[in-house]
Each structure stands twice: as C-alpha cells, then as structure tokens.
Amino acid sequence: MKFNMTETGYTMTTDFGTIDISGDATKGFKPGELLVSAVVICSAGVLRQVLKKMRIDVKNLDVEVKEIGRVEEEGNRIEKIHFHFTVEADHLTEKKFEKAIEVSTKNCAMAQTVKNSVELVKTFTIL
After folding, report:
1. What parts of the sequence cross the membrane (predicted)?
2. CATH number of the domain bearing residue 121
C-alpha cells in the first residue's frame, strides 16, 4: 500500500486500484469508515469460512452496520460497532449460528485487534 497526499486527504493505491480517503465524506472514504469496514468484512469473511467448515450451505450473508458508538471527549474515538447479519441457509439454527459467530470472532484478525478498545455487538436474522 502507498498513500499519497491530495488537496483534500490521501489516496491509497493497491494492486486492486486507488481509494480516496478524506475527513470530508464528499471527497472520499472517511478513516473511521475504513476501520469499521475492516472489522465488519473480516468478521463476515471468517464467519463464511466457519459456516463452510460446519457444512452449512450459505446462500447469502449480508451485513449491515446498525450503530457506530463514539466518544467525543476522546477524539471521537470509536467505542462500539453494532452489526447485523442476515443469513440465508438451510438447516441453520440460532444455536449453530451463535457458535459460528463466537468461533469467527476468535479467528478474525481485525476483531482481535480492536477487542480491548471497541465493543463489537453482533446480531442476526436467519431467513
């Protein structure tokens, strides 16, 4: 990764393209959005792998961020991320999905990186 300064922030260049990053949401992704995205997508990706190992055929797994809690007095630090999974799979029970979430949280590098500073709240709906 390489970051280059622009008039309104930075660009990040990777093998997959360039991403604009800025504190101004009209000029690019905000740094907090990238942090939340990293945690949520890492969690969802590992969750898919765990479900596959459990031999659960996942037809679809969507994730929606419901809340991002911040602490204004601490530089607007992110203290909480609540995300909601909507999963479509045959023969998946709440108990199995809760276990899969637990295992995936332990194996997600991003969740482990923020575990002592950001509360991760995960809810779900099984279709």
Report:
1. none
2. 3.30.300.20
